[in-house]
Description:
Structural class: alpha+beta
Amino acid sequence: MAKLAIKSDVRKQKLLLPPSLDELVPANHMVRVVDAVIERLDISDILSTYRGGGNSAFSPKMMLKVLVFAYLSNVYSSRRIEELLKRDIYFMWLSGMKRPDFRTINYYRGKRLKDGFDSVFTQVVELLHQAGFVSLKVQYIDGTKIESVANKYTFVWRGSVEKYDAKLKAKTEALLNQIEHNHAIENQENPVAEELTAEEVAQRVERIKSKVDAENLSKEEHKVIKQIETNVVPRMKRYKEQLATMGSRNSYSKTDHDATFMRMKEDSMLNGQLKPCYNVQISTENQYITNFGIYQRPTDTLTMIDYLESFRARYGMYSREIVADSGYGSEENYEFMFANGMTPYVKYNMFHVEQKRRYRNNPFRVSNLFYNPDGDFFVCPMGQKMEFIRQEKRYTASGYQQTVSIYRATRCEGCPLLGQCHKSKHNRQIEVNHTLDDYKARVRELLTSEQGLKHRSNRPIEPEAVFGQIKECGKFRRFRLKGMIGVKIDFGLKALAHNLRKLALTWAENSFLSKMLSSKLKRRLCMPLDLCCYATEFFYVTKAA
């Protein structure tokens, strides 16, 4: 029987030349990609947040590398990052054996990155653009809702606040009027405002106390005045503050005032429960995130113009082609995109329904009625004219003005097709938005073209796949920071980590680049991104062959 050979595992053996951490990190590991890319960035905006003096600070670039690599590794807790800095080889190599505690990490993430992170993300995307990974000429746009760190039972609703505020004002007004009437106090000395306010109530109480001696007030009146001073006035002020915090929204959370309650698809209780969330919008190209935005509106339609403007502010230009689903199709959005030279491959609500034979063959549909543009009238299936009646101005939630034309048939009584045409007891009346119909016709032609079919087939595998990687694979289903600024930093770090992970995987898949990076000289380069252009080109050429 052969002798069993066992390797030595003596841990106290001293080495003449101890191994370097750099030797333990593989040449093509993604931590090297994070280090190489961030080393090239200009972080002067982050450095401007440091005042100088006092004890020495941890390197801002090192802190940024650690945070990005942590998000890339699906680690979001600052305490967990502190632990990994003490025992994980990759984190130790990236930080140069420095060990900032969780408070320092959290402060850097929440405060230092407040003003400079947008520049960091933009620079990374521009590097990807220079390397040929993205062209910035097309945006695949989609949105998702991500839950806030706030508790889901801390809601404040506009309807409830307005209802309780109105009841409180009416009751207080009646009580004050009764006391003033009992003691013949004239209101003309301090006329009541159109809407009762906390300040007005406080002034009226002081006037009552100054004009009526305490002995002349009844026990009930004493109790009412004390209740108004200690309870009513603070409640009125609180309601006013809540409405001001809410702004144009219908709700907010007490523990995260910027979060709005929305319905989420990821509802574990399957009862449509409302949760404090943010609406996250992203643009992708080749599954790289080129832009992102955080919004408080639950719907996507009213976020698009502001989002496209943010892309222009980031890169100084609009994309040539915009691809999105029907949640973004509206007259306002189409007008903005066409006016700024963008080609919208953006569906509208009824696009897929219009393609069905049942819809196209229904002669009673407004879109299928014959329209005479010269005479400005429609013709119903029985050949009766539907004359123009008037135009109405409609306004969207954003204040955009729409013009709707109204047409009415002259005599529907006795028509044999009345039951199939409409259910009204009067003559049929229709509303038509000619401007929106013209935009729909242009968009329909774009969507059914060869390029439109290509974009429509790519859209489900662009932003939706990225959201799946972030939320499911990355377990990023809830924010860790509060407020619009904190949430933007939180998601921005995840978006940056997603881009660098995809870049690292491209490098790792390319055997040509792996050989180049296996060289000791190439491993120690601070800026290996320049090799990415040639390696990627080689990868796609060999793949096509």
